[in-house]
Design brief:
Blueprint lengths: L2 H24 L32 H4 L7 H12 L5 H21 L11 H16 L3 E19 L5 E17 L5 E21 L8 E6 L1
Antiparallel strand pairs: 1-2, 2-3, 3-4
Length: 219
């Protein structure tokens, strides 16, 4: 047997040996195998699902009053007079003020809430509290929460910059009225009652004083 044939047979034997070793180390690949996942990188930017249309309705206004209404126009004027004003922010503050004022009145503690009341409303509240005290009546009240609230109306005076916002509240509280002897003559400490109010808050837009005052009450 000549030398070239011998060399060819030796090379073929080596090739077969290497193939068998590779199968033992890597395993057998059967069928289609998905390509390996690419290395992680920056996530593709999300596609915007909407476009902001310039000059569209102010949702901070139209979420609370009908678009094009007199109340909506009044709110727009308030924003022009004081760019930092927001209807949603005001209502958030009114929610907290409602609880504070209502509980202050129920318990007869008007000193803390006086800055939030106009002179007329404060005098009315004080007369009621004094009449209760003269009769020897005391009230124990606990605020449960606000069940409903919404903006009823809004007005704005172009000359004085006076803004008035009327808000409807439906609150829930427990209230007990006791006489001088401590006997319960009205209410229940365990049965909450609904309290419905329509309050008007006022403030001069653009003034240094950020506080709104309660200027009228009703239901």
């Amino acid at each position: 047997m000549n030398s070239p044939i011998i060399q060819l047979l030796v090379l073929a034997g080596i090739a077969v040996f290497l193939i068998l070793r590779l199968k033992n180390v890597l395993g057998t690949r059967d069928g289609f195998e998905k390509p390996s996942a690419p290395a992680p990188g920056p996530a593709p930017a999300k596609r915007r699902d909407f476009e902001v249309i310039e000059g569209g309705p102010d949702l901070d206004i139209t979420d609370h009053v009908p678009e094009g209404s007199e109340a909506a126009e009044a709110l727009a004027k308030m924003k022009r007079a004081e760019p930092g004003f927001g209807v949603g922010d005001f209502l958030g503050g009114a929610r907290g003020a409602y609880e504070m004022i209502l509980m202050g009145f129920e318990r007869g503690d008007l000193a803390e809430i006086k800055p939030l009341l106009s002179d007329e409303v404060y005098e009315t509240f004080a007369e009621v509290v004094e009449a209760r005290e003269a009769q020897g009546l005391t009230i124990e009240a606990d605020f449960v929460g606000i069940r409903e609230m919404g903006l009823n109306d809004a007005t704005f005076d172009d000359n004085t910059k006076l803004a008035e916002l009327t808000v409807r509240f439906v609150g829930e509280l427990t209230s007990v009225v006791r006489d001088r002897a401590g006997e319960v003559i009205e209410g229940s400490p365990t049965s909450p009652k609904k309290q419905k109010d329509i309050w008007t808050f006022a403030r001069h837009m653009g003034s240094d004083d950020p506080n709104w005052q309660l200027v009228a009450t009703g239901e």
